[in-house]
Amino acid sequence: MTPHDHAAPFGTIDAELRIGGQPLSRLTARVGRTPFFAYDRGVLDTRIDELRSALPPQVELSYAMKANPMPAIVQHLSSRVDRIDVASAGEMQHALDTGIRPEKVSFAGPGKTPEEIRQAVAAGVIIEVESPTEIARVVAAGDALGVAPRVAVRVNPDFAVKDSGMRMGGGPQQFGIDAEHVPAFLAEWARRVEVVGFHIFAGSQNLNAEIIAEAQERTVDLVTTLAVHLPKPLRYLNLGGGFGIPYTERDRPLDLAAVAENLRRLVDGPIRDRFPEATPVIELGRYLVGECGVYVTRVIDRKTSRGKTFLVVDGGMHHQLAASGNFGQAIRRNYPVIVGNRIGAPSDAAGPVSVVGCLCTPLDLLADQMELPRADIDDLIVIFQQGAYGLTASPTAFLGHPAPAEVLV
Amino acid sequence: MTPHDHAAPFGTIDAELRIGGQPLSRLTARVGRTPFFAYDRGVLDTRIDELRSALPPQVELSYAMKANPMPAIVQHLSSRVDRIDVASAGEMQHALDTGIRPEKVSFAGPGKTPEEIRQAVAAGVIIEVESPTEIARVVAAGDALGVAPRVAVRVNPDFAVKDSGMRMGGGPQQFGIDAEHVPAFLAEWARRVEVVGFHIFAGSQNLNAEIIAEAQERTVDLVTTLAVHLPKPLRYLNLGGGFGIPYTERDRPLDLAAVAENLRRLVDGPIRDRFPEATPVIELGRYLVGECGVYVTRVIDRKTSRGKTFLVVDGGMHHQLAASGNFGQAIRRNYPVIVGNRIGAPSDAAGPVSVVGCLCTPLDLLADQMELPRADIDDLIVIFQQGAYGLTASPTAFLGHPAPAEVLV
């Protein structure tokens, strides 16, 4: 996808990107400073509508808030999705602040501390246990608090998902309990604490519908072999997510219809037949919020050095770790970048430019030799796909610059 | 260097690492929680003493506080080094809080905002200008405030430094003014604002004394050709730093004596002869503070998955971006890691272990298949070389965990 394609869902007004219905320059004036993250409520709601229309109605949507924990986003989504998944006690508190019922909150993560487990038991959320140590702590906390814990088992599947941005299942993993040990695990624990179901998640940021479909199918088969070891019928079936979004020019959007069609076949077939009491859950973070967000940063210098042109901006990798290529990427590729107040202008006749941040490190590279319209001091650079794993996944304190603003519009 | 070598400067007490004179377990109790960063004042002072004994007395030491801006560290160093280098107005405020005189503070960075430049002019620090745009802003701010700005020129040299961890000079760069344009730049500006000297810095994290010596030699030659374009004698000659520290087992410590010997030759020869009024400055961040710091994190789970053993700790990549391999490294290699309360114990008979953080991402890998003494829940994992580019260079807000503690002991 080209940067132009990424601008389309937002639209333009008078050669400026439109965000939250306003031209970029006016939104920038409203925010009062650069750099900032802006999340477009309309684009976000469109994504949810697309998902709701595509996915079978029995499927509940869970928001993995690690993707973007901004309170306004979490509050907005709390009434539009069915569940929230949290990755720490801190996230759990924010999720519960929205008013969502605790039984609609799941808590996953390989390193929950004993204190976090105690907090989660007290809150009454679904604790997705990932080891024998964890379930012992859950049971002890439940006994100490006089509360019956809600537990699901996170399973490390016996298959891997190809072509995922990050592989999180199959082979040896710190995540979950190996599928082959789940029967013995349930034999030991499932009569001491209620196990409502399973969470199986094999990989994230996948753009290939066929592979996601295959993973969901194998997940249902795996759960079929595991659920017979539960003393009660399966009620919670978290199939994970892993739906990717396109970042680079080489990426193509996920074929959501194909994923949904396969899911419908599973939900109306084996899931209904084998687990009539189960709620199937799809857990999405990046796919829900990633595309609604942009990062806006102002050009503060334009300089030429030995034949290369640099646009120096007031933001940088301290807010944009992934766009700088330092968040798990083996090879850095440009994210979609535009000059947000020069849409439709021809490419700079002077040739490609590099957009660099204000940090005193060569790592602070936001766009490498891109064809952009001629940009000068005070122009606004926009980076797309910034609604997920942007601000909180970046080293914001690095070099002591002020925190960026963040708005939901 | 092995992890054992890294423990040596700290010492041990009863099979525990000693930090700030205390056994690790007692320090952990004092801090009151894990994870935390601890910086050992004795190890830090030893490094300064080594530098002072090795370097010629005319050379002033500048602390590049971007490496570690903890206020107690900056305060401690402010009376032990001669200068502080800052990379933002935020850092500048903290540097001035120590009581250091503003003429001993330098402000470098390719993306200083107009507001930051105004603050720096008002403060009276040395502004290392990196572009024609910047100097125009400096002059305008000086006029508006009625203050004569202190300016040095950051030069992008016409040579590169091989084998640097990060190359920051030579070829096209966002840093500084290309050497070949400096004469014209000075012709335009050096009668409108006082230019005290130059800063030339070609690369950081270099472990090869010969290459650093060569860079310093070429820097002096370059300054010789540039200084003739100054209307007054050169007073400030910032030779940069770039002294590296060993992180992986393949790394060998820098031969400081060799660097110092070359520097003495330059200082007592060409620098004294050609620039009798100049103060030579060596600017160091990582080399000053990197080795005095450790990161301490507690084992909260030990699990085996398909033949691999994982120690899950309560810290992670949100505090350890570099150790996780996501801070500019092309290839991830293990940082020096020990079990801080089991020093001298034999390696785990069960084989190598991987230390993983508490985040729900496979990126959160702190040690990959290392031979460590048998460690279990509540043992303390220590990562060395954490005094520089640790906490502030990490995405601390990621997944909503509490910030780590930080102590200077």
Which helices and strands, and how do they pair?
Two copies of one chain form a homodimer.
Chain A: H1 3-7, E1 12-13, E2 16-19, E3 22-23, H2 24-31, E4 36-39, H3 41-54, E5 60-64, H4 71-78, E6 83-86, H5 89-97, E7 105-107, H6 114-123, E8 126-129, H7 132-145, E9 150-156, E10 166-167, E11 177-178, H8 182-189, E12 195-200, E13 203-204, H9 209-227, E14 236-238, H10 256-274, E15 279-284, H11 286-289, E16 293-305, E17 308-313, E18 337-339, E19 353-356, E20 365-370, E21 380-383, E22 405-408
Parallel strand pairs in A: 4-22, 5-6, 5-15, 6-7, 7-8, 8-9, 9-11, 9-12, 12-14, 14-15, 17-19
Antiparallel strand pairs in A: 1-2, 2-3, 4-16, 10-13, 16-17, 16-21, 18-21, 19-20
Describe this structure in words.
Two copies of one chain form a homodimer. Chain A has 409 residues and is α/β, with parallel strands linked by helices. Chain A folds into two domains: 3-39 and 290-408, Beta Barrel (Lyase, Ornithine Decarboxylase, Chain A, domain 1); 108-284, TIM Barrel (Alpha-Beta Barrel). Helix content of chain A is 29%, strand content 23%. Chain A is built from eleven helices and 22 strands. In chain A, strands 4, 16, 17, 18, 19, 20, 21 and 22 form an eight-stranded mixed β-sheet that branches. Chain A is elongated, with a radius of gyration of 23 Å. The model of chain A has no long low-confidence stretch (mean pLDDT 96). At the A-B interface, helix 5, helix 7, strand 10, strand 16 and strand 17 of A face helix 5, helix 7, strand 10, strand 16 and strand 17 of B.
